[in-house]
Amino acid sequence: MPGRKLTRQDLRDAAEKYKNWGKWGPKDEIGTLNHTQPEDIVAAARLVKKGKVISLALNFDNAGPQGAKSKYPAMGRINPVHTMLRTGTDAYSGVLDHRGIRAADDMVVMPLQCGTQWDGLGHVFYENSMWNGYDCREVTSNGAQKCGIEKTKNRMVGRGVFLDVPRALGREILEDGYAITCADLDRAAESQDVSCEVRPNETEPGINQPWHWITIPMMGMTMGEIFYVKELAEDCAADKVYEFLFVAPAIPITGAVGSPTNPLAIK
User: Fold this and answer.
1) What is the pTM of this model?
2) Integer angstrom CA distances of residue 173 from 66, 99, 164, 265
3) What is the distance, to the nearest Å, from the Cα of residue 254 to the centroid of all Cα atoms in its chain?
4) Is 190 strand, coil or helix?
């Protein structure tokens, strides 16, 4: 655990230190995704050696993560509700024959961030501002007028690196609620010969998820959450290869502040 909990002054200092507003121009809406260039994608594609594809997504169903034990309020998020519009029973009965085709069809009702998903740049605000200094009121009841997730639809491809913290700590799993620290991630990175920069996530009362406060609206980092990494962890431990081609496009829902995704690690 960190030596002390982060304060609002810590957040103010970090916000100024890591602010990327204007770095890619005053009209930018994709932030750090600008870093990935065509040559980076070509290099990432060369990481594919054995043609193994590993999904990092949870299945989207009523057994999803919403409603789990947590101190964080659900804020209206539910697990997906899947409903059939036409079924095989309908086809068997003949009620679809007037359409000239027998087929099934379905629909789903779900918050866009109820499972494996991307947090878009319109998702979290720092005080009254979103990414690149846009006014938080740019996100209206009609959706995000700036930084909608659709702006990223051809961007979620590149090199992925997996840091296996439990394995670096000599554990099978991390117990529920374990707070991963800078030292934990540094230890994992060192054991895998990968360099990175991390910051703690423990704060004083009144501050929830400070990582989000800085990475999304200040740094401009579209952030993935609720990835299922068990199979990837086992594969990386077996072949000692912790980098791969990463492909995880967002669904381009116009004006959305997040999107479900099926991230793929291709080795």
Assistant:
1) 0.90
2) 21, 53, 10, 21
3) 18
4) helix
pLDDT tens profile 50-60: 999 999 999 99
Do residues 219 and 31 lie in contact, with contact meaning Cβ atoms separated by under 8 Å?
yes
DSSP helix/strand/coil, 196:
coil
Q: Categorize the per-residue pLDDT at 76 as very low, low, confident or very high, splitting at 50, 70 and 90.
A: confident
On the question of pLDDT at 267 being above 70, the answer is yes
The residue whose two tokens read 């009965």 is: 93
CB contact at 8 A, 221 and 31: yes
Instruction: Look up the domain containing 87 and give its range.
Output: 82-110
Are residues 205 and 129 both part of a single domain? Answer: yes
If asked whether residues 99 and 139 sit together in one domain, one would say no
**How many other CB atoms are found less than 10 A from the CB of residue 262?**
15
For the record, the structure tokens of 173 come out as 């799993």
- Looking up tokens 């079924």 gives 87
Tens digits of per-residue pLDDT, 198-220?
A: 544 556 677 677 888 999 999 99
| 3-state class (DSSP) for residue 100 | coil
Whether the per-residue pLDDT at 197 is higher than 70: the answer is: no
Rg (CA), the chain: 21
Q: What is the mean pLDDT of residues 54-83?
A: 87
Burial of 246 (C-beta count, 10 Å sphere; 0-12/13-18/19+): buried
Alpha-carbon dihedral sign for residues 50, 193, 43, 245: positive
> 247 and 158 in one domain?
yes
Last residue within a domain, chosen from 110, 126, 158: 110
CA dihedral 259→144→213→40, nearest 10 degrees, is 60
Hey, what are 171's tokens?
């554990």
